[in-house]
């Protein structure tokens, strides 16, 4: 294109020059000028092309940095934040009622609510994660402090109960049973804790395996686990930790879940002392019996004193009807009220 422009300039010079000499001189001079301009323009074009190439390379580098740098940071920050949110929510749920002051739980809830839900910078997500970690750690420390305080109180209560009732039998001799206020005249068939009801409909005495869970530390004399409703089991696990810290041994169990057929058999053996089949609190997976004998858990025993004083903190109570002076006194019976 530029060579054609030079030819056009040359032709115009010939038309205006008025002679061969002038024309020859004009052509030579203008060719030199045109060539100089062309070379200069080509150098400019080369410089512009180089600049464009450098810009393209820089753009590619920026894009590559975005993919391998910034984007990678963002991709790592979001899963880390989401995982911490899930962990913090779990701690918040499980710490309900387990801290002396709910201020730390409220702070954790606020930190969870403040998490950015939409697009956010990596720095913002890292900051939110750090706030959650700090708030969650504070709740966990508060739970630990409350547990230590509860165990200390339990130990003091057990010691006080032992001092107030020196006649209580903690070794289990039958000769001391009457002194401890417990005993039995029952001579009928033995009954055992029940397993979940396969194919049950979820009604009293027909609870399915999905509705029950076994305690972790003991089984009955036949090797059958003690089953309770899942939330009752979880609470009893926590209670047992505190019980063991206070009294030096695990909580002993005798009966837990009771299926419908066992309720029928017990009603036949015990009469009105046993619940009408289909109405037993054991049939809901929300009741347990500690051993009647030996008399470790009798009316005046340190173990019962601890359970009555501390069980409610874990949702487990001695119901009024089963207490001494109640309508059907049973020192061995406890129920989960949540």
Automatic annotation (TrEMBL):
One Gene Ontology term from the biological process aspect of the record: proteolysis
Which protein is depicted?
A: D-alanyl-D-alanine carboxypeptidase-like core domain-containing protein
In terms of Pfam families, this protein maps to: VanY (PF02557)
Its Gene Ontology molecular function terms?
peptidase activity
Entry's transmembrane regions? none
Tell me where the signal peptide lies: 1-24
UniProt xrefs under InterPro entries:
VanY-like_core_dom, Zn_M74/Hedgehog-like
Q: Name the keywords, alphabetized.
A: Signal
Q: Which residues form the D-alanyl-D-alanine carboxypeptidase-like core domain?
A: 227-338
Among SUPFAM superfamilies, the record links this protein to:
Hedgehog/DD-peptidase
């Amino acid at each position: 294109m530029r060579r054609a422009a030079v030819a056009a300039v040359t032709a115009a010079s010939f038309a205006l020059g008025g002679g061969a000499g002038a024309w020859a001189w004009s052509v030579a001079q203008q060719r030199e000028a045109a060539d100089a301009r062309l070379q200069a323009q080509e150098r400019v074009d080369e410089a512009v092309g180089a600049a464009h190439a450098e810009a393209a390379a820089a753009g590619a580098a920026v894009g590559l940095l975005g993919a391998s740098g910034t984007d990678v940071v963002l991709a790592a920050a979001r899963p880390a934040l989401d995982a911490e949110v899930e962990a913090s929510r779990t701690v918040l749920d499980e710490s309900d009622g387990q801290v002396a002051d709910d201020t730390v739980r409220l702070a954790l809830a606020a930190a969870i609510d403040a998490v950015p839900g939409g697009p956010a910078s990596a720095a913002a997500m890292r900051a939110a994660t750090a706030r959650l970690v700090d708030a969650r750690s504070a709740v966990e420390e508060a739970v630990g402090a409350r547990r230590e305080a509860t165990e200390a109180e339990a130990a003091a209560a057990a010691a006080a109960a032992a001092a107030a009732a020196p006649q209580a039998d903690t070794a289990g001799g039958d000769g001391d049973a009457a002194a401890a206020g417990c005993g039995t005249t029952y001579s009928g068939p033995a009954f055992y804790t029940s397993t979940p009801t396969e194919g049950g409909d979820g009604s009293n005495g027909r609870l399915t395996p999905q509705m029950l869970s076994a305690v972790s530390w003991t089984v009955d004399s036949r090797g059958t686990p003690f089953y309770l409703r899942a939330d009752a089991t979880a609470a009893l696990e926590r209670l047992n930790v505190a019980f063991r810290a206070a009294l030096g041994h695990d909580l002993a169990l005798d009966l837990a879940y009771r299926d419908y057929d066992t309720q029928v058999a017990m009603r036949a053996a015990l009469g009105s002392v046993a619940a009408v089949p289909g109405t037993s609190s054991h049939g809901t997976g929300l009741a347990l019996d500690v051993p009647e004998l030996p008399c470790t858990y009798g009316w005046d025993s340190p173990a019962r004193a601890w359970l009555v004083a501390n069980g409610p903190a874990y949702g487990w109570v001695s119901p009024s009807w089963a207490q001494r002076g109640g309508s059907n006194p049973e020192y061995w019976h406890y129920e989960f009220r949540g």
